[in-house]
């Protein structure tokens, strides 16, 4: 039987297809046996923003803050919170006696203010500092030596931001202040030393920024939905 030229071509294509199928099948079997891996260059390491990473500082104490008893005799008010500051955002004064005048901060302050808790000496819960890594505390925080002014002044500091500003009824409120040196939310919003007005009910949900956004610097035009 004589094979025609067209049949030669057909046989050639069939052989090529069969060989290709064997190669593809063999390659697929080899790939399946390889371990999964991720190319490192696809996900380069990026240093976290300080005010983002600071949100999670002392997150391991969140449940402890929630379970601490409410100190009815020493509850701090928001008015008292701002009274210890020259203006909104300013460092608070030291309201108690300085035990060691030569101490500049560090352990002298952080033994009470790093993680909070009850301080027997003052019969109160110590407020938590949001920036324990800055150990030269008295560079910014000073004791009150007098209530008189050095000189009369017309200085007016920043007013305290309004609280409870939210997009709609039931939505989480925005963060009304900047995050510089105040990136750790639990420091001011959790535990019995936090002002009751701004104390959260769920400190264990430490990723605060997933729901609470920073208030925009410029007003956004929008209408509040009707109740």
Question: How does this structure look, described?
Answer:
This protein has 227 residues and is mostly helical. Helices cover 25% and strands 3% of the residues. The chain has helices at residues 5-33, 50-53, 62-67, 78-83, 107-113, 186-189; strands at residues 117-119, 124-126. It has a two-stranded antiparallel sheet with strand order 1-2. The model has no long low-confidence stretch (mean pLDDT 80).
Layout: helices, strands, pairs:
Elements: H1 5-33, H2 50-53, H3 62-67, H4 78-83, H5 107-113, E1 117-119, E2 124-126, H6 186-189
Antiparallel strand pairs: 1-2
Task: Please summarize the sheet with the most strands.
Answer: 2 strands, antiparallel
Strand content: under 5%
Tell me, what's the shape? Answer: elongated
Main structural class: mainly alpha
Continuous helix count? 6
In helices, the fraction of residues equals 10-25%
Q: Rounded to an integer, what's the Rg over CA atoms?
A: 32 Å
Distance between the termini: 91 Å
The average pLDDT is 80
Give a count of the beta strands, DSSP E runs of length 2 or more: 2
The strand line-up of the biggest sheet is 1-2
Order of H and E elements: HHHHHEEH
Poorly predicted runs are none
């Amino acid at each position: 039987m004589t094979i025609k030229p067209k049949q030669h071509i057909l046989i050639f294509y069939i052989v090529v297809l069969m060989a290709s199928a064997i190669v593809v099948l063999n390659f697929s079997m080899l790939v399946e046996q390889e371990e999964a891996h991720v190319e490192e260059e696809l996900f380069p390491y990026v240093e976290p923003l300080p005010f983002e990473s600071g949100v999670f500082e002392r997150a391991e104490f969140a449940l402890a803050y929630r379970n601490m008893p409410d100190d009815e005799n020493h509850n701090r008010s928001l008015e008292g919170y701002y009274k210890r500051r020259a203006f909104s955002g300013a460092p608070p004064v030291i309201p108690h006696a300085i035990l060691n005048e030569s101490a500049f901060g560090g352990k002298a302050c952080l033994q009470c203010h790093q993680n909070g808790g009850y301080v027997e000496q003052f019969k109160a819960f110590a407020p938590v500092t949001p920036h324990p890594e800055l150990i030269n505390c008295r560079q910014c925080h000073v004791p009150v030596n007098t209530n008189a002014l050095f000189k009369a002044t017309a200085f007016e500091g920043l007013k305290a931001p309004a609280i409870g500003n939210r997009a709609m009824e039931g939505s989480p409120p925005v963060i009304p202040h900047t995050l510089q040196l105040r990136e750790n939310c639990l420091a001011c919003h959790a535990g019995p030393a936090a002002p009751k007005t701004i104390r959260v009910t769920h400190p264990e949900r430490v990723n605060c920024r997933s729901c609470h956004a920073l208030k925009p610097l410029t007003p956004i035009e929008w209408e509040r939905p009707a109740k």
